[in-house]
Amino acid sequence: MSVLTGSFNAGENSVAEAARRRRFGPTYSRNVRAVVARGLMATKSSNWMVMVSGFFEPVLYLISMGVGLGAIVGPVQGPGGQEINYAAYIAPALLAVSAMNGAVYDSTWNVFFKMNFAKLYQGMLYTSLGPLDVAMGEIFLALLRGAMYATGFTAVMGVMGLITTPWAILMIPASVLIAFGFASFGMGITSFMKTFQQMDWINFVMLPMFLFSATFYPLSVYPQSIQWLIQAMPLWHGVELLRQISVGVFSPATAVHVGYYLVMITLGILLTTARLRKLFLK
User: Fold this and answer.
1) 256 lies in some domain
2) pTM for the full model?
3) Per-residue pLDDT tens for 62-121?
């Protein structure tokens, strides 16, 4: 028994020593692909139905609201002041919602289970993997899901005749940027959650963003004080960014929307890495 224990401790010490010697210390081992590979295998075996089902929600909203309600609403004013039909107005917004939902699900509920029940991250961090490897791997999986949703939804828009400019193809990478922002922050915030009741706060925040981020109505319908609050929400920036791209109308505000997500991504990755290190590398 002492021989086995000694061998185990020696192996554990060698891993820790190797972590200290590498360029980025115990934080990053440049092995994100191992986390991604494990996630893809798990998705293939058990989670693929959940991923597929998440695609249909925004499509159903587009058909019911865009086609059904759109027949009553008529043309609305889009970016640049040009008139577009209601379905074309809400479709980019629903694409932003789809990117948000896919990223948030993977980086919150999925992470919550792995962290608190499966104890997966503890096991990963007992190896040569660092917290930045785990964070980037999980975020990449969320981005992959967001990219799949964005590609499929953009194809649906094309079939419905809602794409009128070649610029619209940029909605796919823009949707990945939106997903990146939500995924990087979602994982860090989830690290503070300990119970299912606390996780309900995520839905409590997401629902108002979905309803009030100018998804179905222009920002001008709200009082000025409410407009300021909406413009501080991350989803509003995603909605406006995709709406501008969908009609090929760009302005200085486009750079502001992109910059908002770049800052969100940077802060989210820093938060997630710091939290994983604090929780599991004590």
Assistant:
1) yes
2) 0.81
3) 888 887 777 788 788 888 777 888 888 999 999 998 888 888 887 888 888 888 787 887
* Spatial distance between the Cα atoms of 177 and 81, rounded to a whole number of angstroms: 26
| Amino acid, single-letter form, for residue 173 | P
Number of domains, the chain: 1
Rg (CA), the chain: 21
* Residue 44 belongs to some domain of the structure: yes
Structural domain includes residue 203: yes
Residue 6 lies in a domain: no
Which range of residues forms the domain containing residue 64? Answer: 25-280
